[in-house]
Structures are given as C-alpha cells and as structure tokens.
Specification:
By secondary structure, the protein is mainly alpha-helical. The chain folds into 2 domains: 4-51 and 112-218, no CATH class; 67-109. It has helices at residues 4-24, 30-43, 55-74, 82-107, 117-134, 139-163, 188-204, 208-218; strands at residues 165-166, 171-172. The chain has a two-stranded antiparallel sheet with strand order 1-2. It starts with a helix and ends in a 6-residue tail after the last helix.
Length: 224
Amino acid sequence: MANFKTHLSAGYAANIAAVTGLWLTGMADIPESLLYVVAGTVGSILPDIDANKSLPLKLMFNIAALIIAFFALLGQKSDTPPLFLFLLWSAVFLSVRYGGLFIFSRLTVHRGLIHSVPAGVLCCFLTTVLLYRIFHASNFTAWMTGIFVFFGFLIHLILDEFSSIRMSEKRIKKSFGTALKAGSFKYLKKTLMLYITIIALFCLTPAPGSFVHAVLKKSPWLAP
C-alpha cells in the first residue's frame, strides 16, 4: 500500500486542483476554498486511522481530545475553581486521548471496514451534519465540505489498490481488493451497523435537493 507521505501529497494535489476549478468558476471564495482543501486533504489520510500506530490515528485522537476537553469546560459555571477546571480538562483529555485510542484500536483492524467506500460515505455525511447542525454552515458549504472529505478518502483507497499491482513483477499482491470494497462478509454485523449508521446520518443532513439545485445554478457549464 502507499505510504503516509504519498497519500498526503496525492490528496493535497488532487484537492488543490479540484478547489481551483471551483474558485475559477466562482463556486467558492477564498475562505471556502481553504476549507475544502483542508477537508479533502484530511479525508485522504482518514482510511489509515485503523492502523494502530498510524500518524492519522494519533492526530485524530489528539484533536478530538482537545476539542472534547474544551467543550467540557464550557459547561462549567463561571465561579468554578481554576484547579478543578484544570483537573477536569486533564481528566477528559487523557481519557479521550489514551482511553478512547485504546478502545478504538481494540475494535478495529487495519484495512477493515474503515478502509472501505461506505466508510468514506459515512465520513462525508458526518462532516456535513457537523458543519450544518453544530457549526451552522450553509447547506452548500456543509455538503461541499463533506464531498471533499469523501473525494480525499476515495483517492486514498484508489492509491492503495494501485499500489497492490506490481507491473514490473507482473503480479498482484494479496491486498488487492481490500481497499475499494463495499463491506465485509467476515464482519457482517459490523457491516450492517455501518450501513445503518450511514442511513441515520443521511436523515440528519440538510436537504440534498437544495444542494444539487445550488450546484446547478452556480455551475457555469450547467446553468441554462
């Protein structure tokens, strides 16, 4: 499979090209363009979070721990003693960073369900829901960001499949077909839960019809 540097470089380059197209056609301004590039680049390394010692996994739990610990402090009263706030922040951060990472590592296997197309769809919908419901982004921005996450995710899977083909040796590695998959019969229950989660998240996304209409309206090559 391709290494971290290859995934990061390829994901960044592909997303820069895609965002440049949006910017040149007036479908994204500078702040939105930056958001889409970051989202797509992050998406390009997300499939490797199921590798127990991978850098993406550590980064994900570091960031998640910081965010969750921050929100834990927001729920406290203004007169709460500083020492208690520090201990609370430390406890939440360490629990998520190390406890959450330990549990996640136990529940996942490398190139398992996270390394699949439906997992990319889940990340797309989750990003869209979070931006729209939590950060109050517009319908268009939320959906477009989610799509860029999926775009980066898909690039990662395609690169892994290509890396399984050894043209010089005229052979195909056993890992071929383990990235671009729709699920796993070996983990049938988990596969079903993955699809159920995808459906549930889709129900929480903003109206997809409005997004499609906005794309058709903004696209110079599609507008009447």
